[in-house]
Amino acid sequence: MRQAVGDPELTAAQREMLAGRRGDGAALAMRVIVRLARALGADRLIPVDSAHVDGCLFHGQVGIDLVERLIAGGARVAVPTTLNVGSLDLLHPGVVRGDAADRADARRLMDGYVALGAEPTWTCAPYQLRERPAYGRHVAWAESNAIVFANSVLGARTDRYGDFADICAAVTGSAPYVGLHRDENRAGQVLFDCSRVPAGAFASDVAWAALGHLVGRRSGTRVPVLTGLPGDADEDRLKAFGAAAASAGGVALFHAVGLTPEAPDVATAFGGRAAERRHEVTAADLLAARDELTTAPDGRLDAISVGTPHFSVAEFRALAALVADGPPFDEDIEFWISTSRAVLAEAERNGDAAACRRAGARILVDTCTYIAPVLRTSARVVMTNSAKWAWYAPTNLGIDVVFASLPECVLSARAGRVVRDPGLWRVP
Amino acid sequence: MIGVPLSPGCATAPLLLLDEPLSFWGGTDVATGEITDVHHPQRGASPAGRVLVMSGSRGSSSSSSVLAEQMRRGVSPAAVLLRRPDAIVTLAAIVARELYSIEVPIVVLSAEDFDALPRKGMVTVSATDENAEISIDDGRRR
């Protein structure tokens, strides 16, 4: 452990900003970044190409106070900056309930970030937008699922930024040179051998989410390395895995050998070091993870929520195909899809959004069903294919969860009760 | 004992040692500070007004906002003792100090000191930007 603290070395431009020559707002942002750098033991700051800001989700007056102090001080973002979900669906007013004062506060916070020059993207999946960080480039991203995706799947470099650090990095264009920005912290630490899981299991979306959950639980904040996974997993599978590993543990970077860019082989993924621990994953482990994420017995069902993290264009296509033939959803079941306004625009163009709506689905943008009051208050049991949603919703919403695959969500929506695919979880 | 200060301040309060890391967002009540995470073994306990001992925080990047809002409302921990530097907790303290001049000391202990902490006792934390001192009265005769 460090025995002392010291200030990071600053460039002339960074010192000028700290001294207030670029305005009081920029000076405040630089003070926050420098104090954070000092606390984390950074010897310098590094420039970042972009920022993804999570602070636009309303948690209390402190969020408004910070953003309005920055605005009053003349601050602007210095790099391209995307915004995470807010607490409202600005395209579909009235969908998010809540009293007028709460909605006004949420809107004031969201407007504040746009006033600082950030793009009103309102999505937890900024990696689904057209501009993505390039391999090896430094960025300052917040939102745990976006962080793990940027590091692992894109090979960009971000530490675990959260509220406040994100906007201050955007305004200063810099971040402490620590953590996952540095080579030595990106090597794998824990091995998960998945080769004993029957190959067919990973054809299901929910197997990836369940695997992410168990890897998160066993890894904590360490860097897991996965072997034995099918080599054709798409980004939605890796999204589901990463989101689960980040919320159940604190995983901000994983390496999937043969799948992710810093893991062409096991030795490279571990940076030449030995694994601290090895785990063998079995089908029974995935089943246990599913059961840990399920709090309700099979039976009653009130609602279904998919799209955490935000539904992609490909997921709209998959859901549209699943609902193309067969009856519409039971009218007593609320079926919600959370997505971004950018992805929705594409799904509107290609007709997939309309197909999902025809079956009975409703679409939420700019926010998410587990952080905003959207589900009807009588909902008690909700099905989801998201391990992250299943992990947080019982606490956030006071409901019970059934964790299930996207096809099971459709079967259940039609039947008006929990319907399982018995083949999906068969343990050989 | 001596620690490394991540954010300055002084506090004397009873200790609350967490058995597992905690996500302030999704895991605590923003209005009361109470642990609400259904998965946490200490659900129902409240870090408010205590010297919170945690190896590190977990989960969501919204936790800094929730903890800073708890500081603003006076329902945050009185101090936080960590086993390793933690950006989420530190940022909350930095921003509460910037916006409201509220100081909640955040201190990292050595692994040996951290692991030797008692489960109960009165803790005094005194941290400047440069140094941090921690003393514990656990009721036992020395």
From TrEMBL, chain A:
Key words of the record: Iron, Lyase
Pfam families registered for this protein in UniProt: AcnX (PF04412)
Record-level Gene Ontology MF annotations: lyase activity
Listed InterPro entries: PMDh-L-like_dom
Domain Phosphomevalonate dehydratase large subunit-like: 9-410
Protein name, as recorded: Phosphomevalonate dehydratase large subunit-like domain-containing protein
Automatic annotation (TrEMBL), chain B:
Coiled-coil region: none
Protein name: Phosphomevalonate dehydratase small subunit-like domain-containing protein
InterPro entries: PMDh-S-like_dom (IPR002840)
Any one Gene Ontology molecular-function term assigned to this protein's record: lyase activity
The Phosphomevalonate dehydratase small subunit-like domain, residue ranges: 22-107
Source organism per UniProt: Actinoallomurus iriomotensis
Gene3D superfamilies named among the record's database cross-references: Phosphohistidine domain (3.50.30.10)
Keywords recorded for this protein, A-Z: Lyase
